[in-house]
Amino acid sequence: MVDKFLNKGLSFSDIDTHRKLALNPDNLFWGILPKKGDAEFLLPEDVLSLYGREKGNLDKELHDFRFNSDLNCIYIDPTDRCNASCPYCYIPSEIRKQGTQMSGEQLDTVLKKIARYFRNSERKPVIVFHASEPLLVKEIIFKAVDKFSSQFLFGLQTNATLLEKREVGFLKKHRVGVGISLDSFDPEINNRQRISVKGGNFNKAVQAIEWFNGYAGLNVISTVTRLNVRHLPDLVKFLHERKVGCVLLNPVRVTQKPALKLIPDQKIFARYFIDAVNNAMELSMRSGRRIVIGNFANLVLAIIAPTARRMMCDISPCGGGRTFLTITAQGDMIPCGEFIGLKEFSGGNIFETSISRAMRSKPFREVRERFVEKINECSICDYRNICGSPCPAELYARGDMYQPSVFCEFYKEIIKYAFRLIAEDKIKYLLREDAMEQLKYRYKYR
Question: Can you give the pTM of this predicted structure?
Answer without folding.
Answer: 0.93
